Amino acid sequence: MELTAPNGTLRLRGEGAVLTVxxxxxxxxxxxxxxxxxxxxxxxxxxxxxxxxxxxxxRAEGSAFCSGMDLHAAAAGTDDLAAHGGERFLxxxxxxxxxxRIVVSxxxxxxxxxxxxxVAASDLVHATPASQFGLPEALWGLLPCCxxxxxxxxxxxxxxxxxTLSTLPVGAADAARCGLVDELAEDPEPALRxxxxxxxxxxxxxxxxxxxxxxxxxIVSEEMEADAVREFGRLMHSPVARERITAFASGARMxxxx
Length: 258
Hints:
- The chain is α/β, with parallel strands linked by helices.
- It has eleven helices and eleven strands.
- It is globular, with a radius of gyration of 17 Å.
């Protein structure tokens, strides 16, 4: 049976050891709002509460997997977003890396900004050739502060730096070469089924032990997390970011159209 999350941003379907979570804001390109983050936390709560669940599969309705921060909401509530948005989003990414379930993102379309963060924080990423991944934050006068600790862990410093500085999207083949994507196929379902055959046989405590042990191999320190939150808040208050986000919200003008 398929359920709708409390804030209406997700659809949930449990089948045996697998919980499928579908981002369901296609008209908004599955952009990230406080409601979406709360619903994702709720989905992970549901997975953890089910002793038989082993895998959480993240999918998306529409042509975009996730377009990152909802800029209309950002323009309407900049102060609250600056004060709490970074901490909330970083907490979600950290939860994806620590929840005692295997998190698989299945991407078929565009992931940008915070959407790249969700992908990078997932345990495994399956994608189609139609997918692309980009960090356009610098064009808005921002930086992907909370995304970068997890993206660097995935692809290394230079690749993450180049994506941030150039703001150019990375195609699916390049994303697979640099490690952002683990499985690339026109039809990703056979690879997902092969994974689930093995993954659903793992004991839940083993998954938790594995994720904790590997987190110690690549430490995202409390100092790094605090710095990401501070920098996000500072940039959200900057004149450049405020002007560009407001211009988009009032007239849908993208910064690359200036």
